[in-house]
Amino acid sequence: MPIRYSSFGLCILGLCASLVTAVVAPHLWTAWLALVLFAALTATGVHDLRQTRHAILRNYPVIGHMRFLLEFIRPEMRQYFIESDTEAAPFSRAQRSLVYQRAKGDPDNRPFGTHLDVSQLGYEWINHSMRPTQLAGHDFRVTIGDAGGAQPCTQPYSASVFNISAMSFGALSANAILALNQGARLGGFAHDTGEGSISQHHRVHGGDLIWEIGSGYFGCRHDDGSFSPERFAAAAADPQVKMIELKLSQGAKPGHGGVLPGPKVTPEIAAARGVPVGVDCISPSSHSAFGTPVEMMEFIAELRRLSGGKPVGFKFCLGHPWEWFAIVKAMQKTNITPDFIVVDGAEGGTGAAPVEFSDHVGAPLQEGLLMVHNTLVGVNLRHRIKIGCAGKVITAFDMARMMALGADWCNAGRGFMMALGCIQAQACHTGHCPTGVTTQDPLRQKALVVPAKAERVHNFHRSTLHALQELVQAAGLDHPQQITAHHIVRRISDTEVRLLSNLIMRVAPGSLLGPVDELHNVFRYYWPIASADSFLPVEQGLHAAR
Length: 546
Prior knowledge:
Structural class: alpha/beta
């Protein structure tokens, strides 16, 4: 019997022992009391194993009630019960509570005002209008791949403004993938596969997929790990695949790469990724299909052609600015543009990563998003490219703020994981996830009941977009894409607040097409040393920038 069932097993043993004692010595009232107690506990354990609402109770019958008891006695105990390191908590207690409420379909209203300190530096709000709008619904969408260009997309995709971030099968359990995809189908939003490619579990419910292709080219690779055009074309033709996302880097560990150890490469994972069973599965730190920015644009054009004209873009966490500028210059030189770019913030990431990478590598989402948006505006390409973003986006205000900085849509990872029942036990990499979300253990993941959790995923998406609708209405707007930095206010001292538009970098349309001497230093120093033909900087310019 697995150790997590030990308390239930002890209850059964106690029931048997008390029953024997009551039969042998019926005059002992304590034996009958023990019999009633252990019978109640055993019945509770049986109920825990059969119920579908709480994965914790299915994996930890009887003893799992301790978590809910502590929350009942003192709700804030949840923070200490589920986190051994509170400083590492990716979201605040209030945010987690909000996700759980919305996922369960519970009311998310709260009495007694804000829980935030409005006098704290960095506090932000959105200004409201004296003439609020009234919108018909909250199904806000953005069309990706409709901007034309030298290689036009012939199958544009109408995407929700809130979608599931890249999380691979293998990192997540089969039941988690099933529930996420069914929730996406119920809510009409997209499910990013992560670089682990499209598994059989992604296909069961038919939810819209964004197929992420990483440096390992999983699902479209030759046996030597190189890109296979034939295998890509065959998989991309699936109508369920709506967009292709080339992953350059991820927020959790940009520039790192990774290895899935051979013992973890199960037949299911091997089938999805196109790799041998039981052999180390390597994700290199860089791509082999291209070596220069121009080659990257040509590869994007090839992916668009091979996919039958579906939207193709790339995801990255901003690093060296001259490398990003080199990509933009390659767009100018080839007249090939991606249909979308997803900016991943260094503060995000659901996968396990070295601490130094999680804490100190890559640009945070605000800085990365602003750089990408401003650069595209500066070369007059912003209208051809949609921008998505990810990085601790969980509430409707988070979404509104990112759209004010230039995003067209937002992705969320941990928010949807928590909707599945994740309690942030920090055991994702151990295989011992208590809720069945991040484990390949077939018994543990059975605790995650797919239909029930899929409905929670759907609820979380719907409720968050409903909250976004209310924010948009309060601001007197008709669509979240109308939110700008002029609508957001930030406190910068005890006695001063400023519009976000007065605090962030902004670039005028077309300003990078001429002299850059009057622009922000990042453009003055690094734009001249970027080359469309290399990710390396022009050496003389680099020394000048230093």
